[in-house]
Write a structure and sequence with these properties.
single chain; alpha/beta; four-stranded parallel beta sheet; 7 helices; 43% helix; globular
């Protein structure tokens, strides 16, 4: 069975009752790293894999937002949620710093900032897959999404990304 949005305690309870859980779909991105702690530890220990959604934070983790002023109004429900994550993580300035670092890493690998953000999530040991949303007819980035498998983040990339993440606060929950 696959689950969606189960926390560690509830996942542990189901597994203890013998329910054959194989995956847990949860929000996981550079902005929302809640799944990287005890949930990932338990998933790895119990052979449950994470299916990460929200990997690109509703499109905020993309070149489109790099160097842009903070939006005054957001009418898209998904973006409203992820904008709250940006605010909780330290605000627009800290978010822009993260985007700048991701863009520099992306240039070195000749990929997009979004590919770097996705690769970071996929490299997490408990993650089996990243679910990349697309709005049919509006924002399909199939060729770009496939390029996430064309490169690997090296130690320098990880140090730079970790430095930017150090300027962000964890999202509560």
């Amino acid at each position: 069975l696959g689950l969606t949005n189960f926390d560690t305690d509830h996942l542990r309870l189901l597994k203890a009752c013998g329910v054959p859980i194989v995956s847990n779909q949860v929000c996981f991105s550079l902005l929302d790293r809640r799944a990287a702690g005890p949930l990932s530890d338990y998933c790895l220990a119990s052979d449950v894999r994470i299916l990460a959604f929200g990997t690109l934070a509703g499109g905020f983790l993309s070149e489109r937002w790099l160097g842009q002023p903070e939006p005054a109004e957001i009418t898209d429900w998904s973006k409203m949620k992820y904008k709250r994550f940006i605010d909780a993580a330290g605000g627009w300035e800290a978010f822009q710093n993260l985007l700048g670092v991701l863009a520099a890493v992306a240039r070195r690998h000749q990929v997009t900032l979004s590919s770097v953000a996705t690769r970071w999530v996929l490299d997490h040991p408990a993650v089996a897959a990243a679910i990349i949303g697309a709005r049919l007819g509006e924002n399909q980035h199939r060729a770009d999404n496939v390029r996430v498998f064309s490169f690997a983040l090296d130690a320098t990339d990880r140090r730079q990304i970790d430095g930017a993440l150090a300027g962000l606060s964890p999202v509560a929950g």
